[in-house]
Amino acid sequence: MTGHAPSRSRWVARARCIAGVRGHSFLLRASRAPILALMCASGLPIAVAAQEGLIRGQVVDAITRAPVVGATVTLASISEPDRDRVPQELADAEGRFLFSGLAPGIYSVRAVSLGYAEGVESEVTVRSSRATFVLLELRPEAIQLEGLTVSGGAFEVPTEAPVSSTLLSATELRRTPGGLQDVSRTLLSLPGVVGGVDNRNDLLVRGGGPGENAYYLDGIRIPQINHFATQGATGGALGLVNVDFIRETEFYRGAFPVRFGNALSSVLAIENRPGSSEGIRGDVTLGASEAGLTLDGPLGERADWLFSVRRSYLQFLFEAIGLPIRPDYWDGQMRVEWRPTTRDRITFVGIGAIDDFDIVSPESGDTENEEVYQRVIDNDQRTMTVGATWQRLVRGGVLRLVASHSGTEFSFQDLDADDAVVLRNGSTETETPVRLEGDFRVGEVGEISFGLRLARTALEVDLFQRATPGSSLAADLRYATTLFSWNPGAFLQGGIGVWNDRARLTVGVRWDDVGALDDGGSFSPRASTSLRLADEWSLSLGAGVFHQAPSLLSLSVEEDGERVNRTLEPIRNVQLVGGLAFQPGPATRFTLEGFHKRYSSYPVSRDDPRISLANLGGDYGFIGAEPLLATGEGRAYGLEFFGQRKLTRRLYALGAYTLSWSEFSGADGVLRPSAWDVRHAADLTAGYRLGERWEVGAKLRVLSGRPFTPFDSVRSAAEFPITGRGVPDWDRIGAERTPAYARLDLRAERRFDFSGWNAVVFLDVQNVLNRGNPIGYLYTQDPAFPDRRRPIDGTALLPFFGFSVEF
């Protein structure tokens, strides 16, 4: 596929899979000492001074963001929920509260106030090193019906999105076995979410591709959350967001409200914590692939700051085990919050990364590494986003003015055996949006929201692609241009509770326009409703239209000085989602949801209309740099079951099963299994706390086989000497499947608390069963594989040791 580098650019996926096989003994030897240290830690005699922790927090109206003065806030230990003495505080004039003198551990915090439903934060970790911040958002409620309790307990369900949404705390993000403290990998435990190859952070949600997702950081949209991202999609190699910053995340798997635009499958909204108000605090961390430093502290009495920097060490590991690739990255993140008055809050956010990738010649005779060296393209990137939000409390509501700027530099290059250029892409994408939004209460149980948006997007690109035997191009593509586009948008949404708030209806509409398209306007009406059938049962429904603009790289393509893709249209997706929820207790919930998604106007290749961009984006490199037609169609549908038990006393667990179909067509309109058509996906995650210091967890993931398109033997034989890649037989899209996939991950951690500082030591072991798990195939001319297919195995048995010291 033009600009796609299929299989060739799986450098991280391939490298870490190889690391799991070839470097297995090296990794075991390298990690033996810290593993033994972790195993012995529970018996280590350490003199520990008295430790105390703090919880600072605020109670606010979930709609207007105004403080809920006088709210009653109670605190309970997770391990001792039934003890007689329960600490209690009243929220002050700014809605703030404080619990001091707490023993380190995990607590639940609850807030109640007349006219509001109960608010709960179920897992709050108290440390001796710093105060923990808790934000409790209370939803207005009507007078309760007799015998009907309106409380979600530990499960908060957004009224504007009652289906397909999940709220995850910082504690839940960190402790997922196999998650490596990476947001994207943690989300794989949820229903309807499937990853790409083992060592990419692609989010494939309900049969959609990796380019159909949107990401927000403190209300600022960021173009990607991964290092070494795929241009034209949103997947990548490793997480860019530092989980030490995160307060909570909200993930929408579909049917998301109209305030979120330019996305088809999912929205991930990350909210960061404020900095310390007690003085400068810090955190030194060694993770699975990088080491990092986080610092935070106060700026006077009404401001605070956070800052972090991280550096990878994968390049040293890969060199040590003899791999020909050297991925190297830095990333940084900052946040400043200023509260000049009790009604104003101004937040500054920044995140960025430097990604460099080197390739070195392998030793002669190492056939597999020689093929890796031949396939891999040079891939260097620079990315950053900075933004600010001014939130102003007004009568009956809140206004937000949001401005940001994002920029990403991509540099790709591919040479043949004679060092002649096969592919070169030097491009810089920028986006500068400004938004004004407001949320207001109407009566006791009504609300209305609006938003206006104007964004300037630009792309400066110098691109060359040779029309090789495996390319879809009819001739070489070469152009250099600068593209500008003004993209306005607006939304309006209203919601109301009826039958004493037993049922709720939300209706909204969104309008967007893409200035770089001849016909870039789109309307997106959406609606959702929920009905509380009884104390334990509820029924929800969501429906709507969703649009997403073609990528800037696709819109920039020129032939003879003319932009050839300006006649494309925003991709359209119509969704219908229904769900039934059963909550037998405050910490346990089960849901059953069904979904149906219908796609239209999906771009397909003009020169090879069998190929839809819907099937691409799960590799390194870029997609969409070719002439396209807006004639593709698709559909995805299925059922999801999800059960979750929040941490109570010692145990937490969540299980998910998804049965789904994903099909897309080329220009012929014939639907075929997409690259993301994983019919069965089952996940089971559980953990247990052994006392107050130890926690162990396990995660089991089982998937049915992934679609695989066989190679075109004639074109592959001609392509391989030039690029080291095979060529899929596009007449047989998804005709075969890989074997079923099964992986068990384990995690153990030990916490140490001292006076004024604490530490966490963890061991994360991926694929404990050391199962092969082929997740695809590469074309090869190695005689050891007479069928010309070299399996791409998933991660082998691979232990990771890490620690975090907070002070």
Describe it for me?
By secondary structure, this protein is mostly beta strands. The N terminus is likely disordered.
Classify the helix fraction into a percent range. Answer: under 10%
**How many DSSP-defined strands?**
43
Give the overall pLDDT as a whole number: 89
Radius of gyration, whole Å? 26 Å
Distance between the termini: 51 Å
**Number of contiguous helices:** 8
Biggest β-sheet, characterized? 22 strands, antiparallel, barrel
Q: Name the structural class.
A: mainly beta
Principal-axis shape equals globular
Task: State the low-pLDDT regions, or none.
Answer: 1-50, 145-150
Strand content: over 45%
What's the quick description here?
This protein has 807 residues and is mainly beta.
Summary keywords:
807 residues; 9% helix; 22-stranded antiparallel β-barrel; disordered N terminus; five-stranded mixed beta sheet
Summarize the topology.
Blueprint: H1 11-21, H2 24-40, E1 53-61, E2 72-77, E3 88-90, E4 96-102, E5 105-112, E6 119-126, E7 132-138, E8 165-169, H3 170-175, H4 183-186, E9 193-194, E10 204-205, E11 213-217, E12 220-222, E13 246-252, E14 266-272, E15 281-286, E16 290-298, E17 303-312, H5 314-320, E18 325-341, E19 344-359, H6 367-375, E20 378-394, E21 397-415, E22 421-442, E23 446-465, E24 477-498, E25 503-512, E26 522-532, E27 537-548, H7 552-556, E28 558-559, E29 562-563, E30 571-585, E31 588-605, E32 628-648, E33 651-664, E34 672-673, E35 680-690, E36 694-703, E37 707-708, H8 713-723, E38 736-737, E39 741-753, E40 758-766, E41 774-779, E42 789-793, E43 798-806
Parallel strand pairs: 1-7, 11-14
Antiparallel strand pairs: 1-4, 2-3, 2-5, 5-6, 8-13, 9-10, 11-12, 13-14, 15-16, 15-43, 16-17, 17-18, 18-19, 19-20, 20-21, 21-22, 22-23, 23-24, 24-25, 25-26, 26-27, 27-30, 28-29, 30-31, 31-32, 32-33, 33-34, 33-35, 35-36, 36-39, 37-38, 39-40, 40-43, 41-42
